[in-house]
Design brief:
The structure is a single chain. With 704 residues, the protein is α+β, with helices and mostly antiparallel strands. It has a domain of 344 residues: 3-Layer(aba) Sandwich (Kinesin), CATH 3.40.850.10. The protein contains 16 helices and 24 strands. The strands form 7 sheets. Strands 2, 6, 7, 8, 9, 12, 15, 16, 17, 19 and 23 form an 11-stranded mixed sheet that branches. Helix 1 crosses helix 4, helix 4 packs antiparallel against helix 5 and helix 9 packs parallel to helix 11. Bound molecules: adenosine-5'-triphosphate. The site of adenosine-5'-triphosphate (ATP) has 20 residues, from helix 2 and strand 14. Pfam families: Kinesin. It comes from Stentor coeruleus. Its main location: cytoplasm.
Length: 704
């Protein structure tokens, strides 16, 4: 199965009846593990899929269905898993697990039976890759109202990210953080964090309805080349799509809800069109660019990616139309053929080397900057590295050298992480926890961390203590230009804001200390959230104080400048404060402008909706009139036909009567002729008789 074509795999999961459904009737029956039937007074539909999961199916059965694809991902095959369905049918339940368990605060190193596909897959991947030297990079994206946000770095949806395409990276999200997750726990923390930040809303059919599409991405890269000198890499996408929903005319929906609903339905319809185009195979143009979702998944949909669709449906009779529409979508998806090949890249491939060099260059720059400080040196270093990079590009590399580059890359990241750097240069960020964090308040104690790590490639201690690390104050001298100006890159908010958190692994106490030290007018707002909550049955310890998780992160971002803002004297501080205030004012103006713009947009949308409605009403009225006219025409025609039939019948009767009359007349004529003949004969015989008598002869009546 090195290079193969296969159908997109489709499973349907029927969720059980819930209290919120307020019914015990179900329209769904499952004759076999691959068939589903919808039966009610108006429908009888039967269709077959790769697998149908009945309402009693467990999370582990779903995991078993996808696990072969996960194993393939470890061998270098891309994989995308979707959950698609109407709102409240169990997409998030399937992908992440029971919602309540997301909130639990008990730490359980193992997964619970209610854990969803993503946590189970993460655990499986780490367990299966114990012996292999693989690196996992994780990112978490949400698409809300057709805008992309980084769920791990941007909880307030402050910065809209853009999708870019380049030869080096393919399709990628500019500025999206990719964390190096060294263990299952690292991943779990990231998933929890992302889940906390996801846009949800209470709707009629779901108390925690997801209002955004989320994509948890894992890039798996082998650290070492195989015997053939090839390096494996695979991308895994877990997509929990927002659920489609009908416009609720009776209960006035609020403005934001209407907007969300419009955007969700629009992007799902774009996804449907892409699936349709891929399924028919005839269409040359695949409309990937119609929505952010399809554009982002362009290289993971139908192209070199094993794709699994889990369509979730409700058994409630009221949602029969939605269930049928989901099954239709799943039917179309079944037709899609995907050509799959292993993603292997020669270790000496120019692009890979270039990428590694680029990363190493940034890492080195940051490290030197961290160690020595100073803008001049940084500029010098960048210049030297650029030169070096240029030279390196022209030199042939051996596999061993590339492997060394990879190892160096990883080492540098870890070193940076341990130094507590939060920096940014051309292309990459590296975040870290602060050395000042009191160990007792972190959500990850060393014992817990040690005990719970599954498949961690490194003991957690190695990432904690660092003899080279600078004292915390020194590290705080290095800041981003935008921060020096009092702006955050992500949300343009006053600084320090939520994005100044070194990593998603802050602890409540850390946040308090930040709040205290900050003089920002926003500092009273508890902007940081701890990674305490869990999902799928894993969480933070009760009362225990784990150690901060340290992780590396790379950002795909360009043209960021680093400068020395280690300002300690009072004057500059005052100056900075003023600047900060000016920036806040500017930001407020911007927000007001934005608000006005949004209002304007909303008015336009309402107007458009109103016009649409009017147009639809007009269409309906016109159609009704046309229908009426048609009916009248038909009635008119019917009348004519009946008249014609009646006339025809009358004519036939007349004809019959005429025929009868003619017959009678002929009969009369014949009778008259016979009588005349008889009369003539009688006259003849009487005359003959008279003649015989006269002649004296005998008269005989015999005549021939
Ligand atoms: N298979 C299942 N077993 C038990 N409960 C389920 C199952 N599927 C869904 N549920 C419950 O149904 C409710 C809605 O599920 P969920 O939030 O996953 O739906 P969703 O499809 O993601 O909805 P939305 O699109 O609105 O986000 C939740 O309370 C969830 O616990």
């Amino acid at each position: 199965m090195e290079n193969d074509s296969e159908h997109l795999k489709v499973a349907v999961r029927v969720r059980p009846l819930l209290e919120i459904d307020k019914t015990t009737d179900s329209i769904i029956s499952i004759p076999s593990s691959t068939e589903i039937q919808i039966v009610d007074s108006e429908h009888f539909i039967k269709s077959a899929y790769d697998r149908v999961f009945d309402p009693s199916s467990t999370q582990s059965q779903i995991f078993d269905f996808v696990s072969p694809a996960l194993n393939q991902a470890l061998k270098g095959f891309n994989c995308t898993i979707f959950a698609y369905g109407q709102t409240g049918t169990g997409k998030t339940f399937t992908m992440f697990g029971q919602h309540e368990s997301l909130q639990s605060s008990e730490f359980m190193p193992s997964l619970s039976p209610s854990s969803g596909l993503i946590p189970s897959s993460v655990q499986h991947l780490y367990q299966s890759s114990k012996e292999k030297s693989l690196t996992f990079y994780c990112s978490f994206i949400q698409i809300y109202n057709e805008h992309l946000y980084d769920l791990l770095q941007d909880p307030k949806r402050g910065k809209v990210l853009s999708i870019r395409e380049s030869k080096l990276y393919g399709i990628f999200v500019e500025g999206l953080a990719e964390f190096v997750a060294e263990s299952t726990d690292d991943c779990f923390v990231l998933i929890n964090r992302g889940n906390e930040n996801r846009a949800v809303r209470q709707t009629r059919f779901n108390h925690h309805s997801s209002r955004s599409h989320t994509i948890f991405q894992m890039s798996i890269e082998s650290d070492k080349a195989n015997k053939k000198g090839l390096i494996k890499k695979a991308k895994l996408n877990f997509c929990d799509l927002a659920g489609s929903e009908k416009y609720d005319k009776e209960n006035n929906m609020i403005r934001d809800h209407v907007k969300e609903l419009t955007q969700i339905n629009k992007s799902l319809s774009a996804l449907g069109k892409v699936i349709h185009a891929l399924g028919t195979g005839s269409s040359r143009h695949i409309p990937y660019r119609d929505s952010k979702l399809t554009r982002l998944l362009q290289d993971s949909l139908g192209v070199n990616t094993r794709t699994i669709l889990i369509a979730t449906v409700s058994p409630v009779p009221n949602f029969v139309e939605e269930t049928i529409s989901t099954l239709k979508f799943a039917d179309r998806a079944k037709q899609v053929m995907v050509k799959i090949k292993r993603n292997e890249i020669s270790a000496t491939n120019n692009q890979l080397i270039l990428k590694l060099q680029k990363e190493i260059q940034h890492l080195k720059t940051l490290l030197n900057l961290k160690r020595k400080g100073g803008m001049q040196e940084l500029e010098q270093k960048i210049w030297v590295l650029t030169e070096e990079n240029q030279k390196l590009k022209n030199i042939g590399f051996t596999v061993e050298e590339v492997e060394r580059l990879k190892v160096e890359n990883k080492k540098l990241r870890i070193e940076l992480q341990q130094m507590g750097t939060y920096g940014n240069t051309d292309g990459f960020y590296y975040t870290n926890t602060d050395e000042e964090i009191p160990k007792s308040t972190s959500p990850f104690t060393s014992e817990t961390s040690k005990g719970s790590r599954v498949g961690s490639s490194k003991p957690s201690e190695t990432r904690r203590s660092n003899p080279n690390s600078l004292p915390p104050k020194a590290s705080s001298k290095i800041e981003l230009t935008s921060k020096a100006k009092g702006f955050c890159d992500l949300c343009n908010c006053d600084f320090p804001c939520i994005h100044s958190a070194p990593s998603p692994f802050k602890t409540p106490k850390d946040f308090k200390s930040i709040e205290k030290s900050s003089s920002s007018p926003f500092r009273k707002t508890p902007i940081y959230r701890s990674a305490e909550s869990t999902f799928g049955g894993f969480s933070t310890p009760n009362g225990k104080s784990p150690e901060p998780r340290r992780m590396n992160v790379r950002y795909r971002m360009t043209n960021c400048v680093v400068e020395d803002t280690g300002v300690t004297d009072k004057l500059k501080e005052v100056e900075n404060r003023k600047k900060e205030m000016r920036n806040i004012q500017a930001r407020l103006n911007k927000i007001t402008e934005l608000e006005n713009y949004r209002k304007e947009q909303f008015k336009k949308e309402i107007k458009a909706l109103e016009e649409n409605r009017k147009r639809e009403e007009e269409d309906t009225r016109r159609k009704m009139i046309e229908d009426k006219k048609k009916k009248m025409d038909i009635l008119e025609k019917k009348k004519v036909v009946e008249e014609f039939k009646r006339n025809k019948k009358i004519n036939e009767e007349i004809e019959q009567l005429k025929a009868k009359v003619e017959m009678r007349e002929a009969e009369d004529k014949r009778r008259r002729e016979n009588e005349m003949k008889k009369q003539k004969l009688a006259e003849y015989y009487s005359r003959k008789k008279q003649q015989n008598e006269f002649e004296g002869g005998n008269y005989s009546d015999d005549f021939d």
